[in-house]
Amino acid sequence: MPDPIVIATWPFGKVAAEAALKSLANGDPALDAAIAGAQAVEDDYSCRTSVGFGSLPDRLGRLTLDACVMDGKTLACGAVAGVEHIKHPVALARRVMDRTTHVLLVGEAAKWFALQQGFPLEVPYTSDAIKEWLEKHPDLKQRPGANPPAPCDGASEINIDADHHDTVTVLTRDAKGSLGGACTTSGLAYKLPGRVGDSPIIGAGLYADDLAGAAGGTGVGEEIIRIAGSSYVVELMRGGRSPQEACVRACERVNASAGRRGVHPARVAFLALDPKGNVGAACTAKTNFQYAVGRGGKVELVQAKEIAAGM
Ligand code: GLY
After folding, report:
1. Is the pLDDT of residue 304 over 70?
2. Among 264, 282, 268, which Cα is nearest to 222's?
3. Among residues 49, 64, 167, 172, which one is catalytic?
4. pLDDT tens digits, residue range 96-134?
5. Would the pTM of this model clear 0.70, i.e. be above it?
6. Which of 136, 175, 207, 308 has the maximum number of C-beta atoms within 10 A of its C-beta?
7. Assign residue 278 a region: left if phi > 0, alpha if psi is -120 to 50, beta otherwise?
8. Which domains does the chain have, with CATH numbers?
């Protein structure tokens, strides 16, 4: 019988891996375990500022959340983007998968769907997140009613590394050998209102197929979308590459895409799990990406290989 395995992004992925391993040990399917892991991070305010309530908001101070889920056995998937006041967007993504014929619901309409499904509306802000937002926007603090800050100029000002974490992406293999994945995030801190990154985009932030493998991304979502990152990693595994080789290739592709536009590669990372239980991860330069690996009842943090531009 295959060993249950979980991998999850960033040091806070330990929280996810522990919850997912417990779920797998109870005999839950891979997707349920991945969602349990992602939801554990949404619930843990102490360990992150970029997943769930209490995270850093957009440029106007509004917190909007993105999430998606995918079942490697059936390719069923669901996602929500730009959703406010819902504490567990990953559970809502699952509901989109289970209760609709669609894959992705966004914004106000996703919130209305949540209400119809019995999700409560809750207040997503913590005093720490509000304080940090005000500190980053002294104009607004000193002059109530002042114009909002200038629009974000893109990835150049974005700092993502082991100290400034991003999406939690959780990939699991259950005791039957099936794969599942879930990811959840508040997106980039101080993003333009309406901006959506890779996390709720199936094939960009997440992909899972029992016949090839599961992969997820984290970091500057625009760069992951540009190369259809997770789908690319899974297709490389389908073609015989190991999870490690596939993640390295995806980082090389991010570097090459930046080169074609004459900009520095953004900080991104990929992680992957194949149907045999092999795992791998890689990141672009200066990302300092660590991920949690849980198996045999234990969870450890592993440092991913950095792929510098031009390699
Ligand atoms: N990787 C999360 C985002 O870019 O929104």
Report:
1. yes
2. 268
3. 167
4. 999 999 999 999 999 999 999 999 998 777 777 777 777
5. yes
6. 207
7. beta
8. 5-135+157-307 (3.60.20.30)
CB of 275 sitting under 6 A from ligand 1: no
How many Cα atoms occupy the beta-carbon half-sphere of 259 within 13 Å? 11
More confident position, 145 or 280: 280
Residue 36 has pLDDT above 50, yes or no: yes
Q: What SS3 state is found at 304?
A: coil
Query: Does 172 participate in catalysis according to the annotation?
Result: no
Distance between CA 302 and CA 280 in Å, rounded? 10
Place of tokens 């029992």: 210
Burial (0-12, 13-18, 19+ Cβ within 10 Å), 45: middle
Q: From 196, 179, 188, select the one nearest 271 (Cα to Cα).
A: 179
pLDDT of 176-209, one tens digit each? 999 999 999 999 888 999 999 999 999 999 999 9
Would you state the structure tokens that stand for residue 241, as one six-digit string?
A: 């590459």
Residue 188 CA, closest ligand 1 atom number: 5
Token code pair at residue 273: 């799990």
d(CA 266, CA 27): 39
